[in-house]
Specification:
Low-confidence stretches: none
Strand order of the largest sheet: 1-4-3-2
CATH architecture of the largest domain: Roll
Radius of gyration: 26 Å
CATH superfamily of the largest domain: 2,3-Dihydroxybiphenyl 1,2-Dioxygenase, domain 1
Number of domains: 2
CATH topology of the largest domain: 2,3-Dihydroxybiphenyl 1,2-Dioxygenase, domain 1
Strand content: 25-35%
Distance between the termini: 59 Å
Structural class: alpha/beta
Largest sheet: 4 strands, mixed
C-alpha cells in the first residue's frame, strides 16, 4: 500500500548515526542517500526516509503520528529498544504486550533524537485467522486447478473432434 514514509530531522548525519544503529536490529539498512538532504532505509528499496524538511523550515514532530516497523521476534523488539536508548533516544513505551491493540500485539516505542515517535512491533496472527487464511488459499488453489482442468478437458475434446473429422474426410 505505501511506497515510503518520511520524517523530518534537524541534522541528517546525526539522525543517520541513530537510525543506522537502531534499524539494523530489525534487519533494515541504509540503502539510498542524497546527502546532505536525506537517507532512505529498507531491505532493498528505501521505504523509510529521514530528511531535512523540503520547505527548509525547522523539523517538527507530528502530534499523534508515529512509524511502526515490523519485527520478526520479541527479541528483535527488545534489541531495537535497547539500541535506541543507547543511541540517545528516549523511552516512550518499554517492550511488552499491548493488549489494548489486540491480544497478539507486542511492541516497543521510542522517540528519536528529534522527538519523532517510532515503534517496533510483532503481531502474531491468531490460530483461527491462520486456519481461515489457509482454508481460503486452498479454496482459491482448488478453484484455479478446476478451471485449468476444465480448460484442458475442453482442449482434449476439441482435439479428438478434429481427429475424427480428419478420419472422415
Amino acid at each position: 500500500m505505501l511506497h515510503h514514509v518520511s520524517i523530518g530531522v534537524a541534522d541528517v548525519a546525526r539522525a543517520a548515526q541513530f537510525y543506522d544503529r537502531v534499524l539494523q536490529e530489525l534487519g533494515f539498512k541504509r540503502v539510498f542517500e542524497v546527502l546532505p538532504y536525506g537517507i532512505g532505509y529498507g531491505d532493498k528499496q528505501p521505504a523509510f526516509w529521514v530528511q531535512l524538511p523540503h520547505n527548509q523550515q525547522t523539523a517538527a514532530v507530528g502530534n499523534g503520528a508515529h512509524v511502526a516497523f515490523n519485527a520478526a521476534s520479541e527479541e528483535m523488539i527488545r534489541a531495537f529498544h535497547r539500541a535506541a536508548l543507547e543511541a540517545g533516544g528516549t523511552d516512550d513505551g518499554a517492550p511488552g504486550p499491548r493488549p489494548d491493540y489486540g491480544p497478539d500485539y507486542f511492541g516497543a516505542f521510542v522517540r528519536d533524537l528529534d522527538g519523532n515517535k517510532i515503534e517496533a512491533v510483532l503481531v502474531r496472527m491468531p490460530a483461527a485467522a491462520k486456519k481461515k487464511a489457509t482454508r481460503k488459499a486452498r479454496k482459491k488453489t482448488s478453484a484455479k486447478k478446476a478451471k485449468s482442468a476444465k480448460r484442458a478437458g475442453g482442449a482434449k475434446k476439441k482435439a479428438a473432434r478434429g481427429k475424427k473429422r480428419g478420419k472422415r474426410g
